[in-house]
Every structure is written in structure tokens, then in C-alpha cells.
């Protein structure tokens, strides 16, 4: 991907992130949101994605329909990453 194309993909992902962040962060199990490279099977694809951080990946059947995440939003792919419970260090 050319530098200009990559920047356009980043800008688009950032715009989508701002537009949907409240909705995504209100869903069960979602604890964070960012932009990064999509990872499939532990390998980065090079594709810019909206990265949704969850405490634990769950099968769709275990989530209410409202809490399920789409595979993409407005053409920006979603990469769901399990990060576990996040606790402040005191």
C-alpha cells in the first residue's frame, strides 16, 4: 500500500472510530477502541482496521444481538482482540 493510500485508510478509520465509539464502547465485553493493523491468525495483514478490545472473545451465540460486533463498519474492517481484564495498578 502506497504511503498516500495508507494515510487515507488511517484517516477514514479515525473518522469512523469517532462516529461509532460511543456505540461500540457501550456494548457488553468491549473495553477499548483504537486503530491498527488487522491481525488474522496471529499475522498482520497490512490492512488498516478499527481495533476493538474485549476482555474475552465470546461466540456470537453467547452475546445479545445488540452486543455482537460487525465484521466492518462503513468499509473499515473490525479486528476484535482479547486483552483480558484491565485493572489500574495502585
Molecular structure report:
The protein has one helix and four strands, in the order αββββ. It has one helix at 3-25; strands at residues 30-40, 43-54, 72-73, 76-82. Strands 1-2-4-3 form a four-stranded mixed sheet. A hairpin with a 2-residue loop joins β1 (30-40) and β2. The protein is globular. The mean pLDDT is 92.
What is the CATH architecture annotation?
2-Layer Sandwich
Supply the CATH class: Alpha Beta
Report Rg.
Answer: 14 Å
Whole-number tally of structural domains: 1
Mean pLDDT metric: 92
Into which percentage range does the β-strand content fall? 35-45%
| Overall form | globular
Find the CATH topology: GMP Synthetase, Chain A, domain 3
Tell me the number of strands.
4
Q: How can the largest sheet be summarized?
A: 4 strands, mixed
Helix content: 25-40%
Separation, N- and C-terminal Cα atoms: 43 Å
Provide the low-confidence segments as ranges.
none
- Provide the structure class: alpha+beta
